[in-house]
Amino acid sequence: PLYLRALAYMIEENREFVSSQELGDRLGISSVQIRKDLSYFGEFGKQGTGYEIQFLRQQLRQILHADKVWEIALVGAGDLGHALIRYEGFCDKGFCIAIVFDHNPQKIGRKMGGFEVFDAESIPTIVKERGIKVAIIAVPASEAQAVSDILVKAGVRAILNYAPITLSVLPKVQVQYINPIIQLQHMAYYLD
To answer: Lower CB density within 10 Å: C or N end of the chain?
Structure first.
């Protein structure tokens, strides 16, 4: 993903080619590591010329499955869920929130950012029917594991978890954790 972002910026700059050295400099990675990473997937560059940016970006998008549009199930229609719905950057990158779930009767059936909020009890049926493979969990920590279990049982294979808890999932399920407090604590360590 870092490589894709750097390549996208270079395309905006109307660049055609980039060397592993320049790509590495932009990303804070050695040119040796860039070449090693890319060679894992195939031959993309030419010695003395570098990498053709459009072609490399296209190939990396295919390899990383970033050339598809993924429907996302969002579980949690609270403040965080509402903010995530309003964020327009997801769809721009191929991850579109398609459905929203919550267990709060006051939210079920109401519209939130153009989405009807569905009862969390309907997760198994709707997620299976729509073939949704990606979900975002934006519920309290006390509910996150149960929500994760339901999502995985319904066929979800990738979860972005905002709840401050480590989920127990099958090895075939990818989980990424977003916890701003941990990042802030990490940064605070380096402050005077």
So the answer is: C
At 54, which CATH number? Answer: 1.10.10.10
Residue 129 burial (CB count, 10 A): 11
Check which CATH number belongs to the domain holding 116 and give it.
3.40.50.720
Question: Would residue 99 be called left, alpha or beta, if left means φ above 0 and alpha means ψ between -120 and 50 degrees?
Answer: beta
Q: Domain check: are 32 and 74 in the same one?
A: no
pLDDT at 123: 98
The answer to whether 167 and 146 are in contact (CB under 8 A) is no
Q: State the pLDDT at residue 118.
A: 98
Q: Assess if residue 175 is contained within a domain.
A: yes
List CB contacts of 50: < 8 A, sequence separation 6 or more. Answer: 17, 18, 19, 20, 22
Average pLDDT over residues 39-67: 88
Burial (0-12, 13-18, 19+ Cβ within 10 Å), 124: middle
pTM given for the model: 0.81
